Amino acid sequence: MKLLMVIAHEKFRDEEFLIPARVFAEAGIAYDVATDQPGGSCMGMLGETVEVTRSIKETDASLYDGIVIVGGPGAAEYLWADRDLRALVKTMYEDGDVVAAICLAPVVFAYAGILEGGRQATVFKTRLSEKSFADKGAVFTDIPVVVDGTIITANGPLAAAAFAEEIISALSC
Predict the structure, then answer these.
(1) How large a percentage of the chain has pLDDT more than 70?
(2) Among 54, 57, 103, 112, which one is most buried in terms of CB atoms within 10 A?
(3) Has this prediction a pTM greater than 0.90?
(4) Which CATH number do you get for residue 90?
């Protein structure tokens, strides 16, 4: 079992990466980390650095059982518009893999078109994130973690542990 964790090259939300990464490691689930600008280290908004050697663009979806996109302001700034990430998400969703995103990152799912048709999801509430959900046909559900089939979303760092547990649960199905 292997996951792909995606972070923005800067301003990702530290605990939204660190808590799930720890939970996954404790559960024996391997993961790789990819970013929009590969090579070197990525800096979280609270100062955490994460070494990343994989780019989103060069990632082979078939190597993973799921994708986990970390939020924070960097997700809105760098990941929402990333066409390679949108394509990767869509491919993994269509293949039946777990697709998970936390905080501001679920907007990537809206832009990838996987929330159309009334899929339920949550997101860190901002005017722009809520508008993106509404424009793309998603049903915003204002609770910490939402599971809709293989789509798992969470609204922020306080939900990070529960988010990780729901991902593990979905992987074991």
Answers:
(1) 100
(2) 103
(3) yes
(4) 3.40.50.880
